[in-house]
Amino acid sequence: MLYLKNGYLIDPASGTEGYRDILIDGGKIARILPQGAAAEGKETIFDRERQSQVRVLDLQGKYVAPGLVDVHVHFRDPGFTHKEDIHTGAAAAARGGFTTVVLMANTKPAVDNAQTLSYVLEKGRETSIHIHTCANVTKGLKGQELTDMEELGRLGAVGFTDDGIPLLDEELLRQALKRAAALHRPVSLHEEDPALIRNNGVNAGRAAAYFGIGGSPREAEISMVERDLKIAVTQEADLSIQHISTKEAVELVRQAKRKSSHIYAEAAPHHFTLTEEAVMRHGTLAKMNPPLREEADRLAVIEGLRDGTIDMIATDHAPHSTEEKERPLTEAPSGIIGLETALSLGIRELVRKGYLSMSQLVRKMSLAPARLYHLDAGYVAEGGPADLVVFDPDKEWVVERFASKAVNSPFLGETMPGVVSYTICGGKIVYEGDDPLA
After folding, report:
1. Is the dihedral of CA 228, 234, 235, 239 positive or negative?
2. Domain architecture of the chain: domains with CATH
């Protein structure tokens, strides 16, 4: 049993904000009490025989929120475990305050069959957090033939995606959306037309000119988003535009949402924090797909988060080895890690600058993604799951080391606000330490 006292609770599901004490028992939240009610004798929360079993955490005004939910992460397992594996990925998630993650399916072998799906889920159950996974939309991520979506859904896939590769066949997308609607599973799309891209991971603007390469033009994203939203608004499936990066794509989503309640979008912390200038400073550590764009795009992503056009914040945690990232710019893989810096970036870039309240940030990092993927997460209520993050939004830390197996981050060396004190999952403390990695 855990008894959390003197914490400031934020629950976006109920709208609760204020000081509360929380009793956790058997993996569930047993009681939510007014601050100090038990100490004042107003409530009897556990009998004397069980008092010795209770660990009391005096949170001293720190924030308590639902455990964060990230529905777009790459743990590289199976096939690329030199970059990350499910256990190290789970450790990075816990350190960042995440109690639930949804894995992408571009592994080797891909999650397009029952055996690989079972492997991922079974290995996920060995970790301290809740690990779910998407399955592929198409077999082998080749964009030619749909997977057995019904079987994969029955076996536990919570969504479908070919993330990393766009779905170019329009009719195949229509079929996938119809089948996903019947299964009540979302489809999430990586929106970049490869025919328009000369060098991926770098914006075809000032950054590409700086390096003397062709880069990835904004039209690669815009054209795919426009096409897919036209299809999606005629369907009943939930469709999510992944890691949106351009102002035009944000506006397209805004317009599509007026026509359909099944349209969703996610933003990655790097896209509301950085611009292509970061690639010019950090090289491959800031190379990602879709690439960092211009300041107007960054501000458009923030406005999309502010006005509800963009529903979720998802990290696109994409670990790579140091050797891989030390290759020349056009040869190094795209992607950065993000689980351990996401909450801090949200506080620094969105809350402190007045774009979102803390409750709105928590909603976009917990409740909203949980609801899209039909997960029992993202809320704090009696009888609900004891999945919580406790953090101090004012305390600062330096980005120096990671629980992840990878270190490919453009934020290395930065001082950030927002220190996770405890991550609690299933009623157990799975990360503890005001001094990160203590």
Report:
1. positive
2. 2-64+382-432 (2.30.40.10), 67-372 (3.20.20.140)
